Prior knowledge:
The protein is an alpha/beta fold. The chain has helices spanning 71-74, 121-124, 131-140, 160-171, and strands spanning 3-6, 25-30, 40-44, 52-54, 75-76, 79-83, 106-110, 146-149, 181-184, 196-203, 212-220.
Amino acid sequence: MSRYVLLSYTIDDRTPLYGNTPAPIVSSYSSISEGSSSNTYIIKIHNHTGTHVDAPGHFIAGGRTISEYDLRDLVFHNPVMVECPAGEDERIPLKDASFGKESIDCLLVRTGFARYRHEEIYSTHNPWFASEDISWLRKNYPSIRCLGVDSLTISGFQNRDEGRKAHKAAFIDIIGAEPLLLIEDINLAPISGQRLKKILVLPLMIKGIDSAPCSVIAEVK
């Protein structure tokens, strides 16, 4: 029997942030305790906060934005999770991993770096993907449409130029493969050792923004 597992982190005042990204602000708009008929809130949040999904519009002028994807684009029926241990400022050894099958549509990469999520190094010394490895992945596994990692970003904070190249390598048009969606700051520990059946990515559908916080749900057997 299948069951469902949430892979997104709750956004709160401990959520790690990239660089000078502003912290989320949640303020009360109406309150029952103050005489209003209901509780409502105003939420101010950078769109790359917490578990979020990057679409091509993040780095490609005129690229597809997240609200332009429909449900068929956001459900993945052949997901695979691989173990690629990587530490502080290390290049993620993507080419060393065994993917097990070629018809992958969603690749989740567990580095183990999430154990540092509430420490400063998670935001400042995270492992990263090389642009050439992203290009290699898309060339050799063209069915992959989504790449997720248990790190704050696919970019190394200490190597931002390469991080920009890696994003562009994921998003540029190439013959025979769709641009990737990138899920960053995802919690992969709950599905370690599990048999994945399906991944659902449910972003905030806000028109005009490149990317968005998202709920990621895994169906496991």
